[in-house]
């Protein structure tokens, strides 16, 4: 009655089912791994954002690489902005997905070192984005700035290519090493996303806090893949029984159908 399982069609179907089960199980484990990664990141970000503010030079220095544990920590510094040597970061979007620039302004500390401050987002003046945009001036004189410490940007981490031949005072990625060469100064590693003082007229538009990644979605996907894996052998068995019943003589097939339990 089950000789049809040796046919080419059924052999291929069985092999496909056998291959799908471990693949779906592995996909479930991969989604669970992503869930654990995202949960750990959310916990790390929340811990960093909730930590007390510290002087910036306690966490970074010229040539320093900002670590994962230092990322998003609130730091403070006292000094003055140097708007004459600021640059803008191209092709950045705001909360409404509008394309514009982020303003990167050197902040000179009392000892002469420079902290790079991302003062926020401004809209692009035109479609070409070839000219240096009109940038709102920062506060003058000696002030205290606070913000979230961030690591230098890289193509590998951001997916943004560091293009050459850009218009004057425009960059693609924020790199403290490159800015140190341009400014001919000691520049602290990483940069700071400004949170205070808040700009007048809300411009530049301050960059919001990082949001939580949807870890629960990965958990749901993991369960889904494992349910799919469990459903494959059940579906295969149903198909086998249906095929075997269809290949029986009419009288035997009728008896087989009568013997099956009624659907609830």
Can you walk through the features of this model?
There is one protein chain. Strands 2-4-5-8-6 form a 5-stranded mixed beta barrel. The chain is 37% helix and 20% strand. It has helices at 8-50, 155-158, 176-183, 215-246, 250-259, and strands at 54-55, 74-81, 87-93, 99-109, 114-123, 143-150, 170-171, 191-196. Strand 3 (87-93) and strand 4 form a beta hairpin. Helix 1 runs antiparallel to helix 4. With 264 residues, the protein is an alpha/beta fold.
Class per helix and strand makeup: alpha/beta
Q: Largest beta sheet, briefly?
A: 5 strands, mixed, barrel
Strand order of the largest sheet: 2-4-5-8-6
Beta-strand content bin: 15-25%
Unreliable parts: none
Could you give the count of β-strands?
A: 8
Fraction of residues in helices? 25-40%
Question: What are the secondary-structure elements, in order, as H or E?
Answer: HEEEEEEHEHEHH
Number of helices: 5
Overall 3D form: elongated
Overall pLDDT confidence: 88
Query: Could you tell me the radius of gyration in angstroms?
Result: 30 Å
- Span between termini: 28 Å
Topology:
Layout: H1 8-50, E1 54-55, E2 74-81, E3 87-93, E4 99-109, E5 114-123, E6 143-150, H2 155-158, E7 170-171, H3 176-183, E8 191-196, H4 215-246, H5 250-259
Helix pairs in contact: 1-4
In short:
The chain has 264 residues and is of the alpha/beta class. Helix content is 37%, strand content 20%. The relative contact order is 0.18.
């Amino acid at each position: 009655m089950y000789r049809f399982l040796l046919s080419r069609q059924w052999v291929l179907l069985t092999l496909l089912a056998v291959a799908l089960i471990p693949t779906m199980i592995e996909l479930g484990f991969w989604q669970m791994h992503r869930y654990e990664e995202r949960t750990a990141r959310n916990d790390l970000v929340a811990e960093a954002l909730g930590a007390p503010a510290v002087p910036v030079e306690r966490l970074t220095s010229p040539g320093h690489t900002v670590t994962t544990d230092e990322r998003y920590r609130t730091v403070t510094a006292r000094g003055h902005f140097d708007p004459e040597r600021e640059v803008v970061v191209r092709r950045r979007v705001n909360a409404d997905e509008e394309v514009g620039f982020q303003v990167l302004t050197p902040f000179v500390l009392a000892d002469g070192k420079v902290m790079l401050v991302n003062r926020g987002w401004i809209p692009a003046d035109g479609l070409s984005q070839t000219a240096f945009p009109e940038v709102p001036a920062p506060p003058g004189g000696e002030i205290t700035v606070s913000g979230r410490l961030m690591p230098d940007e890289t193509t590998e981490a951001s997916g943004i290519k560091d293009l050459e031949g850009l218009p004057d005072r425009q960059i693609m990625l924020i790199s403290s090493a490159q800015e140190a060469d341009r400014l001919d100064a000691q520049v602290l590693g990483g940069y700071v996303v400004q949170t205070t003082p808040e700009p007048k007229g809300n411009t530049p538009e301050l960059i919001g806090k990082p949001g939580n990644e949807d870890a629960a979605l990965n958990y749901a996907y993991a369960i889904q893949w494992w349910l799919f894996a469990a459903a494959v052998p059940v579906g295969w068995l149903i198909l086998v029984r249906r095929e075997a019943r269809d290949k029986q003589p009419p009288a035997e097939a009728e008896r087989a159908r009568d013997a099956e339990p009624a659907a609830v």
